[in-house]
Amino acid sequence: MGIRVENLHKSFGTEQVLDGITLDIPDRSFFSVVAPTGAGKTTLLRIMAGIESADAGTVHYDGEEMTDVAVQDRSVGMVYQEFINYPSLTVRENLASPLQVSDENYSAEEIERRVQETAEMLKIDHILNNLPEEVSGGEAQRTAISRALIKEPDYLFMDEPLANLDYKLREQLRSDFERLFSEEDTTVIYATPQAGDALAMSTHIGFLHDGNIIQKALRDEIYYRPRYLPVAEYLGEPPMNIVPVTLVQEPTSTDRYFEVDDDTRIPATGFDALSPGETYHLGFRPQDMTLTENGAEASITPTLSFVETVGSTSTLHMDFQGREIYALHPNPLHLETGASISFALDPKKFYVYDPEAGDLIAAGDKIPSFS
Ligand SMILES: Nc1ncnc2c1ncn2[C@@H]1O[C@H](COP(=O)(O)OP(=O)(O)OP(=O)(O)O)[C@@H](O)[C@H]1O
Q1: Which of 125, 299, 343, 350 is 20–30 Å from 185 (CA)?
Q2: Measured in angstroms, how far is the CA atom of residue 2 from the centroid of ligand 1?
Q3: Ligand 1 mean position to 366 CA, how many Å?
Q4: Complete domains list, the chain, with CATH
Q5: Which atom of ligand 1 is nearest to the CA of 13?
Protein backbone atom coordinates (compact mmCIF):
# COMPACT_ATOMS: atom_id res chain seq x y z
CA MET A 1 0.00 0.00 0.00
CA GLY A 2 2.75 2.44 -0.83
CA ILE A 3 2.32 5.85 -2.41
CA ARG A 4 3.98 6.99 -5.60
CA VAL A 5 3.94 10.59 -6.73
CA GLU A 6 5.35 11.54 -10.08
CA ASN A 7 6.51 14.91 -11.33
CA LEU A 8 4.36 16.98 -8.95
CA HIS A 9 4.36 20.70 -9.63
CA LYS A 10 2.61 23.34 -7.59
CA SER A 11 2.83 27.13 -7.59
CA PHE A 12 0.93 29.78 -5.66
CA GLY A 13 0.93 32.87 -7.88
CA THR A 14 4.52 33.32 -8.99
CA GLU A 15 5.92 31.25 -6.13
CA GLN A 16 6.86 27.75 -7.17
CA VAL A 17 6.55 25.48 -4.14
CA LEU A 18 6.90 21.99 -5.67
CA ASP A 19 9.19 21.62 -8.66
CA GLY A 20 8.58 18.19 -10.15
CA ILE A 21 8.64 15.85 -7.15
CA THR A 22 8.88 12.15 -7.85
CA LEU A 23 8.80 10.00 -4.74
CA ASP A 24 8.02 6.47 -3.61
CA ILE A 25 6.75 6.00 -0.08
CA PRO A 26 7.07 2.33 0.88
CA ASP A 27 4.10 0.34 2.16
CA ARG A 28 3.70 0.50 5.97
CA SER A 29 6.59 2.90 6.35
CA PHE A 30 6.66 5.83 8.74
CA PHE A 31 7.85 8.36 6.18
CA SER A 32 8.83 11.83 7.38
CA VAL A 33 9.02 14.79 5.04
CA VAL A 34 11.52 17.10 6.70
CA ALA A 35 12.27 20.71 5.76
CA PRO A 36 12.46 24.15 7.32
CA THR A 37 9.26 26.13 7.63
CA GLY A 38 7.75 27.38 4.37
CA ALA A 39 9.47 24.76 2.20
CA GLY A 40 6.22 23.15 1.04
CA LYS A 41 5.71 20.14 3.34
CA THR A 42 2.04 20.91 4.00
CA THR A 43 1.42 21.50 0.30
CA LEU A 44 3.00 18.14 -0.58
CA LEU A 45 0.97 16.29 2.08
CA ARG A 46 -2.28 17.96 1.05
CA ILE A 47 -1.72 16.98 -2.58
CA MET A 48 -0.81 13.40 -1.65
CA ALA A 49 -3.95 13.17 0.53
CA GLY A 50 -6.23 14.67 -2.15
CA ILE A 51 -7.15 17.86 -0.28
CA GLU A 52 -5.31 20.08 -2.73
CA SER A 53 -4.73 19.54 -6.44
CA ALA A 54 -1.36 19.79 -8.13
CA ASP A 55 -0.71 21.93 -11.22
CA ALA A 56 0.83 18.85 -12.84
CA GLY A 57 1.82 15.34 -11.86
CA THR A 58 0.18 12.16 -10.58
CA VAL A 59 -0.48 10.37 -7.30
CA HIS A 60 -0.84 6.59 -7.06
CA TYR A 61 -1.89 4.57 -4.00
CA ASP A 62 -0.85 0.94 -4.11
CA GLY A 63 -0.42 1.18 -7.88
CA GLU A 64 -3.83 2.74 -8.48
CA GLU A 65 -4.10 6.26 -9.86
CA MET A 66 -5.73 8.56 -7.29
CA THR A 67 -4.82 12.00 -8.66
CA ASP A 68 -8.40 13.14 -9.18
CA VAL A 69 -10.10 11.04 -6.50
CA ALA A 70 -11.71 13.17 -3.76
CA VAL A 71 -10.31 12.85 -0.25
CA GLN A 72 -13.55 11.39 1.13
CA ASP A 73 -13.27 8.55 -1.35
CA ARG A 74 -9.78 7.62 -0.19
CA SER A 75 -8.75 5.52 2.79
CA VAL A 76 -6.92 8.36 4.52
CA GLY A 77 -6.79 9.96 7.97
CA MET A 78 -5.46 13.45 8.67
CA VAL A 79 -3.94 14.96 11.81
CA TYR A 80 -3.06 18.63 11.91
CA GLN A 81 -0.93 20.86 14.07
CA GLU A 82 -4.05 22.28 15.76
CA PHE A 83 -5.94 19.71 17.82
CA ILE A 84 -9.17 19.52 15.85
CA ASN A 85 -11.88 18.01 18.08
CA TYR A 86 -15.56 18.93 18.51
CA PRO A 87 -15.63 21.07 21.67
CA SER A 88 -19.22 20.18 22.66
CA LEU A 89 -18.75 16.40 22.29
CA THR A 90 -17.05 14.15 24.83
CA VAL A 91 -13.86 12.38 23.87
CA ARG A 92 -15.94 9.22 23.36
CA GLU A 93 -18.35 11.05 21.03
CA ASN A 94 -15.44 12.67 19.20
CA LEU A 95 -13.96 9.24 18.53
CA ALA A 96 -17.29 7.79 17.46
CA SER A 97 -18.21 10.63 15.09
CA PRO A 98 -16.11 9.61 12.04
CA LEU A 99 -17.74 6.16 12.19
CA GLN A 100 -21.25 7.55 12.67
CA VAL A 101 -21.04 9.80 9.60
CA SER A 102 -19.38 7.14 7.46
CA ASP A 103 -21.20 5.40 4.60
CA GLU A 104 -20.19 2.05 6.06
CA ASN A 105 -23.14 1.74 8.49
CA TYR A 106 -21.17 0.64 11.52
CA SER A 107 -23.34 -0.99 14.22
CA ALA A 108 -23.48 0.58 17.69
CA GLU A 109 -21.53 -2.42 19.08
CA GLU A 110 -18.86 -2.09 16.42
CA ILE A 111 -18.52 1.64 17.13
CA GLU A 112 -18.20 1.02 20.86
CA ARG A 113 -15.65 -1.74 20.28
CA ARG A 114 -13.52 0.46 18.04
CA VAL A 115 -13.77 3.46 20.39
CA GLN A 116 -12.56 1.32 23.30
CA GLU A 117 -9.80 -0.33 21.31
CA THR A 118 -8.48 2.92 19.81
CA ALA A 119 -8.74 4.78 23.13
CA GLU A 120 -6.74 2.05 24.86
CA MET A 121 -4.13 2.09 22.13
CA LEU A 122 -3.69 5.86 22.40
CA LYS A 123 -4.01 5.77 26.23
CA ILE A 124 -7.06 8.01 26.47
CA ASP A 125 -9.53 5.40 27.75
CA HIS A 126 -9.58 7.10 31.19
CA ILE A 127 -10.91 10.39 29.74
CA LEU A 128 -13.58 9.10 27.36
CA ASN A 129 -16.34 10.95 29.27
CA ASN A 130 -14.47 14.29 29.40
CA LEU A 131 -15.01 17.22 27.09
CA PRO A 132 -11.97 18.33 25.02
CA GLU A 133 -11.52 21.38 27.26
CA GLU A 134 -11.18 19.05 30.26
CA VAL A 135 -8.13 17.19 28.93
CA SER A 136 -4.45 18.11 28.60
CA GLY A 137 -2.82 19.24 25.34
CA GLY A 138 -1.25 15.83 24.84
CA GLU A 139 -4.57 14.07 25.46
CA ALA A 140 -6.36 16.46 23.07
CA GLN A 141 -3.84 15.63 20.36
CA ARG A 142 -4.14 11.91 21.14
CA THR A 143 -7.91 12.31 20.75
CA ALA A 144 -7.42 13.96 17.35
CA ILE A 145 -5.07 11.14 16.33
CA SER A 146 -7.60 8.53 17.53
CA ARG A 147 -10.28 10.17 15.40
CA ALA A 148 -7.98 9.88 12.38
CA LEU A 149 -7.15 6.25 13.16
CA ILE A 150 -10.54 4.89 14.14
CA LYS A 151 -11.59 4.10 10.58
CA GLU A 152 -8.33 2.18 10.21
CA PRO A 153 -7.18 4.14 7.16
CA ASP A 154 -4.54 2.70 4.89
CA TYR A 155 -2.75 6.06 4.90
CA LEU A 156 -2.37 8.48 7.80
CA PHE A 157 -1.13 12.00 7.03
CA MET A 158 0.19 13.97 10.00
CA ASP A 159 1.17 17.60 9.58
CA GLU A 160 3.39 18.73 12.47
CA PRO A 161 1.15 17.06 15.05
CA LEU A 162 3.56 17.70 17.92
CA ALA A 163 4.16 21.38 17.18
CA ASN A 164 1.84 22.76 19.86
CA LEU A 165 2.95 20.47 22.64
CA ASP A 166 5.48 21.13 25.36
CA TYR A 167 8.80 19.34 25.46
CA LYS A 168 7.73 16.56 27.81
CA LEU A 169 4.59 15.68 25.86
CA ARG A 170 6.51 15.73 22.60
CA GLU A 171 8.97 13.21 24.01
CA GLN A 172 6.14 11.02 25.25
CA LEU A 173 4.21 11.10 21.98
CA ARG A 174 7.39 10.48 20.01
CA SER A 175 7.82 7.16 21.78
CA ASP A 176 4.07 6.41 21.62
CA PHE A 177 4.09 6.95 17.86
CA GLU A 178 7.11 4.79 17.30
CA ARG A 179 5.54 1.92 19.27
CA LEU A 180 2.09 2.38 17.78
CA PHE A 181 2.94 2.57 14.13
CA SER A 182 5.53 -0.17 14.13
CA GLU A 183 2.61 -2.53 14.93
CA GLU A 184 0.02 -1.05 12.58
CA ASP A 185 -0.72 -1.73 8.93
CA THR A 186 -1.00 2.00 8.24
CA THR A 187 1.46 3.89 6.06
CA VAL A 188 2.26 7.13 7.88
CA ILE A 189 3.30 10.30 6.08
CA TYR A 190 4.55 12.80 8.61
CA ALA A 191 5.59 16.41 7.96
CA THR A 192 7.87 18.16 10.41
CA PRO A 193 10.56 20.84 10.56
CA GLN A 194 11.96 19.05 13.65
CA ALA A 195 14.90 16.84 12.70
CA GLY A 196 14.81 15.23 16.16
CA ASP A 197 11.17 14.14 15.81
CA ALA A 198 11.83 12.61 12.40
CA LEU A 199 14.99 10.84 13.53
CA ALA A 200 13.23 9.46 16.61
CA MET A 201 10.21 7.95 14.87
CA SER A 202 10.64 7.40 11.15
CA THR A 203 11.54 4.35 9.15
CA HIS A 204 12.30 6.61 6.16
CA ILE A 205 13.02 10.32 5.73
CA GLY A 206 12.76 12.55 2.67
CA PHE A 207 14.36 15.98 2.77
CA LEU A 208 12.54 18.73 0.88
CA HIS A 209 14.70 21.54 -0.51
CA ASP A 210 14.01 24.08 -3.25
CA GLY A 211 10.84 22.30 -4.33
CA ASN A 212 12.39 18.85 -4.55
CA ILE A 213 13.02 15.84 -2.34
CA ILE A 214 16.79 15.97 -2.66
CA GLN A 215 17.41 12.82 -0.63
CA LYS A 216 15.12 10.02 0.44
CA ALA A 217 16.44 7.06 2.39
CA LEU A 218 16.07 4.81 5.39
CA ARG A 219 16.41 6.86 8.56
CA ASP A 220 19.92 5.67 9.47
CA GLU A 221 21.15 6.03 5.94
CA ILE A 222 20.10 9.67 5.55
CA TYR A 223 21.52 10.43 9.01
CA TYR A 224 24.88 8.75 8.50
CA ARG A 225 25.18 9.51 4.80
CA PRO A 226 23.61 12.90 4.11
CA ARG A 227 24.40 13.23 0.42
CA TYR A 228 24.05 17.02 0.26
CA LEU A 229 25.06 19.90 2.50
CA PRO A 230 21.51 21.16 3.19
CA VAL A 231 20.60 17.69 4.51
CA ALA A 232 23.78 17.45 6.62
CA GLU A 233 23.25 20.92 8.04
CA TYR A 234 19.67 20.14 9.06
CA LEU A 235 19.32 16.48 10.03
CA GLY A 236 20.73 16.18 13.51
CA GLU A 237 20.01 17.55 16.95
CA PRO A 238 22.18 19.59 17.06
CA PRO A 239 23.09 19.46 13.36
CA MET A 240 26.43 18.55 11.82
CA ASN A 241 29.16 21.20 12.08
CA ILE A 242 30.48 22.44 8.74
CA VAL A 243 33.82 24.24 8.44
CA PRO A 244 35.57 25.43 5.25
CA VAL A 245 39.05 23.89 4.82
CA THR A 246 41.83 23.63 2.25
CA LEU A 247 43.62 20.35 1.60
CA VAL A 248 47.38 20.89 1.91
CA GLN A 249 50.32 18.63 1.27
CA GLU A 250 53.87 19.56 2.24
CA PRO A 251 56.22 19.45 -0.78
CA THR A 252 58.69 17.34 1.22
CA SER A 253 56.30 14.72 2.59
CA THR A 254 53.29 12.64 1.75
CA ASP A 255 51.40 13.85 4.82
CA ARG A 256 48.22 15.69 3.99
CA TYR A 257 46.14 17.97 6.15
CA PHE A 258 42.86 19.76 6.24
CA GLU A 259 43.97 23.31 6.91
CA VAL A 260 41.29 25.13 8.86
CA ASP A 261 43.31 28.32 9.47
CA ASP A 262 46.97 29.31 9.87
CA ASP A 263 47.12 27.65 13.30
CA THR A 264 44.88 24.66 12.74
CA ARG A 265 45.68 21.60 10.70
CA ILE A 266 43.99 18.24 10.98
CA PRO A 267 45.51 15.10 9.43
CA ALA A 268 43.59 14.10 6.31
CA THR A 269 44.50 10.45 6.72
CA GLY A 270 42.43 8.20 4.51
CA PHE A 271 41.23 10.94 2.17
CA ASP A 272 43.54 10.05 -0.70
CA ALA A 273 41.08 10.93 -3.46
CA LEU A 274 41.00 14.63 -2.51
CA SER A 275 43.23 17.12 -4.33
CA PRO A 276 45.87 19.29 -2.63
CA GLY A 277 45.11 23.00 -2.98
CA GLU A 278 41.35 22.44 -3.27
CA THR A 279 38.86 23.84 -0.78
CA TYR A 280 36.19 21.69 0.81
CA HIS A 281 33.49 21.88 3.45
CA LEU A 282 34.48 19.60 6.30
CA GLY A 283 31.62 18.12 8.35
CA PHE A 284 31.76 16.52 11.80
CA ARG A 285 29.00 15.70 14.25
CA PRO A 286 28.77 17.42 17.65
CA GLN A 287 28.92 14.05 19.40
CA ASP A 288 32.22 13.23 17.71
CA MET A 289 34.13 16.08 19.38
CA THR A 290 36.17 15.27 22.48
CA LEU A 291 37.43 17.83 25.00
CA THR A 292 41.20 17.96 24.88
CA GLU A 293 44.17 20.11 25.80
CA ASN A 294 44.86 23.31 23.98
CA GLY A 295 47.33 22.72 21.15
CA ALA A 296 46.72 18.96 20.90
CA GLU A 297 46.96 17.40 17.45
CA ALA A 298 43.81 17.21 15.30
CA SER A 299 42.06 19.75 17.44
CA ILE A 300 40.16 22.98 16.99
CA THR A 301 39.65 25.72 19.59
CA PRO A 302 36.30 27.51 19.30
CA THR A 303 34.96 30.15 21.71
CA LEU A 304 32.11 29.25 24.03
CA SER A 305 28.86 31.20 23.57
CA PHE A 306 26.78 29.24 26.10
CA VAL A 307 26.10 25.78 27.48
CA GLU A 308 22.65 24.19 27.46
CA THR A 309 22.23 21.25 29.82
CA VAL A 310 19.31 18.84 29.46
CA GLY A 311 19.41 16.01 31.97
CA SER A 312 23.04 15.02 32.14
CA THR A 313 23.94 16.03 28.56
CA SER A 314 25.53 19.39 27.78
CA THR A 315 25.23 21.07 24.40
CA LEU A 316 27.96 23.62 23.88
CA HIS A 317 27.10 26.46 21.52
CA MET A 318 30.30 27.97 20.20
CA ASP A 319 31.70 30.40 17.72
CA PHE A 320 34.37 29.18 15.35
CA GLN A 321 35.61 31.69 12.80
CA GLY A 322 32.27 33.44 12.72
CA ARG A 323 30.27 30.21 12.39
CA GLU A 324 28.07 28.69 15.06
CA ILE A 325 29.21 25.18 15.90
CA TYR A 326 28.05 22.70 18.52
CA ALA A 327 29.56 20.00 20.68
CA LEU A 328 27.78 17.41 22.80
CA HIS A 329 29.25 16.33 26.10
CA PRO A 330 27.87 13.43 28.16
CA ASN A 331 28.13 15.26 31.53
CA PRO A 332 27.03 18.63 32.87
CA LEU A 333 29.76 21.23 32.18
CA HIS A 334 30.33 24.51 33.97
CA LEU A 335 32.38 26.75 31.72
CA GLU A 336 32.70 30.50 31.34
CA THR A 337 31.17 32.26 28.36
CA GLY A 338 33.97 33.47 26.09
CA ALA A 339 36.33 30.64 27.13
CA SER A 340 38.48 29.03 24.42
CA ILE A 341 37.87 25.30 24.45
CA SER A 342 39.85 22.70 22.53
CA PHE A 343 38.28 19.64 21.00
CA ALA A 344 39.99 16.67 19.39
CA LEU A 345 38.39 15.56 16.12
CA ASP A 346 38.45 12.10 14.61
CA PRO A 347 39.18 12.19 10.85
CA LYS A 348 37.64 8.71 10.57
CA LYS A 349 34.30 10.39 11.32
CA PHE A 350 34.69 13.28 8.88
CA TYR A 351 32.40 14.16 6.00
CA VAL A 352 33.80 16.10 3.05
CA TYR A 353 31.46 18.12 0.85
CA ASP A 354 32.03 19.98 -2.39
CA PRO A 355 31.59 23.64 -1.41
CA GLU A 356 29.91 24.59 -4.69
CA ALA A 357 27.73 21.63 -5.70
CA GLY A 358 27.19 20.71 -2.04
CA ASP A 359 27.43 16.96 -2.57
CA LEU A 360 29.20 14.46 -0.34
CA ILE A 361 32.48 13.48 -1.94
CA ALA A 362 34.20 11.53 0.82
CA ALA A 363 33.54 10.16 4.30
CA GLY A 364 35.79 8.70 7.01
CA ASP A 365 36.20 4.97 7.60
CA LYS A 366 34.04 4.96 10.71
CA ILE A 367 30.99 6.40 8.95
CA PRO A 368 28.63 3.47 8.26
CA SER A 369 28.06 2.84 4.58
CA PHE A 370 24.86 1.61 2.98
CA SER A 371 24.57 0.02 -0.40
N1 LIG B 1 -3.19 28.48 -0.32
C2 LIG B 1 -2.05 29.15 -0.49
N3 LIG B 1 -2.02 30.32 -1.15
C4 LIG B 1 -0.87 30.99 -1.33
N5 LIG B 1 0.32 30.59 -0.89
C6 LIG B 1 0.37 29.43 -0.21
C7 LIG B 1 -0.81 28.65 0.03
N8 LIG B 1 -0.46 27.55 0.73
C9 LIG B 1 0.89 27.64 0.93
N10 LIG B 1 1.39 28.75 0.35
C11 LIG B 1 2.81 29.16 0.32
O12 LIG B 1 3.56 28.07 -0.14
C13 LIG B 1 4.78 27.95 0.59
C14 LIG B 1 4.87 26.57 1.24
O15 LIG B 1 3.91 26.48 2.26
P16 LIG B 1 3.69 25.15 3.11
O17 LIG B 1 2.66 25.45 4.14
O18 LIG B 1 3.44 24.02 2.20
O19 LIG B 1 5.13 24.99 3.79
P20 LIG B 1 5.56 24.12 5.04
O21 LIG B 1 6.88 23.56 4.71
O22 LIG B 1 4.47 23.18 5.41
O23 LIG B 1 5.69 25.23 6.17
P24 LIG B 1 5.39 25.12 7.75
O25 LIG B 1 6.44 24.23 8.33
O26 LIG B 1 5.55 26.54 8.20
O27 LIG B 1 4.00 24.60 7.90
C28 LIG B 1 4.78 29.09 1.60
O29 LIG B 1 5.54 30.15 1.07
C30 LIG B 1 3.33 29.47 1.71
O31 LIG B 1 3.18 30.82 2.06
Answers
A1: 125
A2: 25
A3: 39
A4: 3-232 (3.40.50.300), 241-363 (2.40.50.140)
A5: 4
Using one digit for the tens of pLDDT, what is the confidence trace for 222-277?
999 999 999 999 999 999 999 999 999 988 888 899 999 888 889 998 898 999 99
- Tens of pLDDT, residue by residue over 101-144, are 888 889 999 999 999 999 998 889 999 999 999 998 888 888 99
Provide the whole-model pTM. 0.91
CA of 315 to the centre of ligand 1 (A): 32
Q: Which residues line ligand 1 (CB under 6 A)?
A: 12, 15, 17, 35, 37-43, 193
Of ligand 1's atoms, which has the minimum distance to the CA of residue 40? 18
Q: Whose CA is nearest to atom 7 of ligand 1?
A: 12
Atom 18, ligand 1: which residue's CA is nearest? 40
Closest CA to ligand 1's atom 23: 38
Q: What residue's CA is closest to ligand 1, atom 28?
A: 38
Give the 3-state DSSP-derived string for the chain, with helices as H, strands as E and coil as C: CCEEEEEEEEEECCEEEEEEEEEEECCCCEEEEECCCCCCHHHHHHHHHCCCCCCEEEEEECCEECCCCCHHHCCEEEECCCCCCCCCCCHHHHHHHHHHCCCCCCCHHHHHHHHHHHHHHCCCHHHCCCCHHHCCHHHHHHHHHHHHHCCCCCEEEEECCCCCCCHHHHHHHHHHHHHHHHHCCCEEEEEECCHHHHHHHCCEEEEEECCEEEEEEEHHHHHHCCCEHHHHCCCCCCCCEEEEEEEEECCCCCCEEEEEECCEEEECCCCCCCCCCCEEEEEECHHHEEECCCCCCCEECCEEEEEEEECCEEEEEEEECCEEEEEEECCCCCCCCCCECCEEECHHHCEEECCCCCEEEEECCCCCCCC
